[in-house]
Amino acid sequence: MFFDKLPIGFYVEKAIDWMTDNFAGFFTGIKNGLEWMIEGGSDLLISIPPLVLIVLIAFLAWWVAGNGTGIFSLIGLLLILNLGLWGNTMKTLALVISATLIALIIGLPLGILMAKSNNANKIIRPILDFMQTMPAFVYLIPAVYFFDLGTVPGAVATIIFAMPPIVRLTSLGIRQVPADVVEAARSFGATPSQLLFKVQVPLAVPTIMAGLNQTIMLSLSMVVISAMIGADGLGKTVYEGITQMNIGKGFEGGLAVVIMAMLLDRITQRLGTAQKNSGKAFVNNFFNKRSENRTV
């Protein structure tokens, strides 16, 4: 070789050690908060009688996505209950919901920032590329360093892995709002905040919902990987099936994950379609009010 190996791994380890030593209290606070959020959510879901919750979810699926999804959710959830995987399914659902909420809280403002600032877009886009293309297993190493074994490092790795779609598609949705609509809003005297929240965001909601859908799917794809560092739920069932060479147990756990993924996918897709019309109606109402004010 013409030059020595660059000590990238060495400096990464040093940086992780420095962060562990100097921000231990910060990481402990995050760990406690995530534990409270995930365990509280799973305890709440488990405390509801399974048949009652199944009926409620099936009704929600029917109301949002139609008869087919409602019937599928009823049969699928009853099958999960019959297989004795209800508790693990609720733990997985709590983990996915928590990770998705945090990804939304962080991702939506970043997506808006990327849409509004070309400089921010140039800086954030390579970071998102790195987050999406880095093998998911790599995230487990620093997560365990900072948060020990258990559900929390799995949730942190899931958030990092699943966040890029919501950021990208939020930015894309806002940038794709027609220029003539933006100019019309400005000509009606809309302030920058009114332009963003009453015109651009409502019209971008279908694209944002597509990002939410992808974030949920990626969160579910991390379930089994997170189980390798102690995360509870269906991933643990699948992982035990792999390590014990128990094909039946692994298949049952995987089937429950598939049912959950299909159910959440259908609901979020239909919500995105429904929000497309409501977003246009909201914007039209905004312009109508502006026209009335001008007339007066």
What does the model show?
By secondary structure, this protein is mainly α. The protein has one domain (11-47, 83-295): MetI-like fold. 87% of the residues lie in helices and 0% in strands. It contains 14 helices and no strands. It has helices spanning 8-22, 24-47, 50-65, 67-82, 86-116, 118-133, 136-147, 151-162, 164-175, 179-187, 192-221, 223-227, 234-243, 247-295. The protein is flat and about 65 Å long. The relative contact order is 0.12.
In what range is the share of β-strand residues? under 5%
What is the H/E order?
Answer: HHHHHHHHHHHHHH
User: Gyration radius, to the nearest Å?
Assistant: 22 Å
The structural domain count equals 1
Low-pLDDT residue intervals, each spanning 5 or more residues: none
- For the record, what CATH class applies? Mainly Alpha
CATH fold group: MetI-like fold
What's the CATH architecture name? Orthogonal Bundle
Helix content: over 70%
Largest sheet: none
* Helix/sheet category: mainly alpha
So, the CATH homologous superfamily? MetI-like
Tally of strands: 0
Give the CA-based shape: flat
Mean pLDDT: 84
Tally of helical segments: 14
What is the end-to-end distance? 78 Å
Write the layout of secondary structure elements.
Layout: H1 8-22, H2 24-47, H3 50-65, H4 67-82, H5 86-116, H6 118-133, H7 136-147, H8 151-162, H9 164-175, H10 179-187, H11 192-221, H12 223-227, H13 234-243, H14 247-295
Short description:
With about 300 residues, the chain is mostly helical.
